[in-house]
Specification:
Length: 213
């Protein structure tokens, strides 16, 4: 089974991005940063979700991100599905912090249980077939609306959502152009390629060349 190994965010100011992620989120080896001046505008077609155990942790991480310089797109609030909030990092990446729990069971720890990369795609069914052909296995599927692939323990989860719906969930306009400013690394990837929605993939072996955030 194929699985993501890590993600690379391409940022204008590498030192500033390193400071932000050190102060806002503790993501360990799941996230690398790389300097880039590739032009980009508007919605980049993806979001990153941090799943936590309780509402107190949602509030803690959203507040930490805001204190480190993020823009709050959606404050941490209760919803039909649990509790969540959305922020946009100074480098432009959109992060959602969420939990399915409705009540706190203890003090906030800030512990992140898992990271989910949500790609906003033009055709969920077609992109699903593409990733199945590349060795991914479906974990959850809701027709042509949402697909989540299985992930190895301790690695980011890959999921697909319709682009317009993903932008609405993030609280931004769906229009965007230029670079996604994202590189996806996977276990079974042997050479760089672009997927049907233009996202860049590269072998996990490249991880040794970049430092973790």
């Amino acid at each position: 089974m194929n699985s993501l190994t890590s993600l690379v965010l391409e940022v204008d100011d590498l030192a500033a991005a390193e400071r932000f992620y050190a102060d806002a989120f503790d993501l360990g080896g799941s996230l690398d940063l790389r300097a880039s001046k590739a032009p980009t505008s508007g919605f980049r077609g993806f979001t990153l979700s941090l799943l936590v155990s309780q509402p107190a942790d949602v509030r803690r991480l959203v507040d930490a991100a805001a204190a480190a310089g993020a823009t709050v797109l959606k404050p941490a609030t209760k919803s039909l599905w649990g509790h969540g909030g959305v922020v946009q990092a100074p480098d432009g990446t959109i992060w959602k912090v969420a939990t399915s729990a409705r009540k706190d069971t203890g003090p906030a720890t800030g512990r992140i249980e898992s990271v989910v990369l949500l790609l906003g795609v033009a055709d969920v069914a077609a992109t699903k077939r593409f990733h199945l052909d590349h060795g991914f296995a479906v974990g959850k599927s809701f027709g042509s609306r949402y697909v989540e692939f299985e992930a190895a323990p301790g690695t980011p989860t890959l999921a697909l959502y319709r682009r317009r719906a993903l932008a609405k969930d993030a609280g931004v306009a769906p229009d965007g152009s230029g670079s996604h400013r994202l590189v996806i690394r996977a276990e079974s990837t042997t050479a760089p390629f672009a997927d049907p929605d233009g996202f860049t993939w590269e072998p996990a072996a490249h991880e040794v060349a970049d430092g973790a955030a």
